[in-house]
Structures are given as structure tokens and as C-alpha cells.
Amino acid sequence: LTFLLITTAAGSHISYKDCGSKSGRPIFVDLDPCPTERPCVLHVNTQVQLAVRFFSSTQTDQVTTVITGYLAGVDVPLPISDPNSCDHGVNCPVSSGQVNTYNESIYVDPGFPLVEMTMRVELKDDGTDDLACVEYPIKI
């Protein structure tokens, strides 16, 4: 398991768990705002900035993003503006050995359940293997 916890001026590298990256590996995850305590507390009616930096060990033309909340044994899809990671900072096509950063602005909708859950971010290659899969606790 990989864990990081570093504070920066632009946000916080948050502590995360690698949840099965196969064709790459995460380098760091930033969630802003997110204080250093766990879980990250996200407030409704706010925008949260997410950045996932990752290393690719394969070539892929496309990268697709899937973000879910895991609650009581159920994966609940969390809405994102566009699942095409290439439109969010990833330089596609991605070469083996390349480092990229995925960036997303997530609106914390008042309709989200006001609970603690595990947020999972998956960046998938053409073959739907995870270039990066990260999980971290959040509380809305």
C-alpha cells in the first residue's frame, strides 16, 4: 500500500490507498480544499479540485475516468463533467513511461448523501485496466 501526506501551497497531497492499479501507478493525489485530517470533509454547494498524478507502464490512445463513492458495500457513481481524461490534463495518446496529471473540478451537490464514504478514482486505459486507482475517505 502506498500512502502520502504532504502539505503544499496549492493544496494537499492526501493519504490514499492504491486500489488495484495494473497498467501504471499513482504518484500523488491532491484534493483542495482538504485539511490534513482524515476523512477529507467536503462541504455541499462547493467545488473541489482533484488532481491525480500517475505513471503509465503501457501505451494507450484514450484514458477514461470513473469516480465512485463506496458506501455500505455499494458503488455509487459520482457525476463528473466528462469521463474523457484527455480533456482534463492527460496528454493523449499516453506512452509507456509517461507521467501525466488528471485534473477535475467536482461540484459537491446538495443531493449527495451526508455521510462518510470511500471515494474511488479510476483512470482506465484502452483495455479498461487501471492506469491509476486510488481510494481515500471523505465525509460530506
TrEMBL record:
Keyword Signal applies: no
Keywords: Secreted
The keyword Transport appears for this protein: no
GO BP annotations, alphabetical order: sterol transport
Location relative to the cell: Secreted
A Gene Ontology term for the protein's cellular component: extracellular region
Molecular function terms, GO-annotated: sterol binding
Matches recorded under Pfam families: E1_DerP2_DerF2
Protein name: MD-2-related lipid-recognition domain-containing protein
Native source organism of the sequence: Capitella teleta (Polychaete worm)
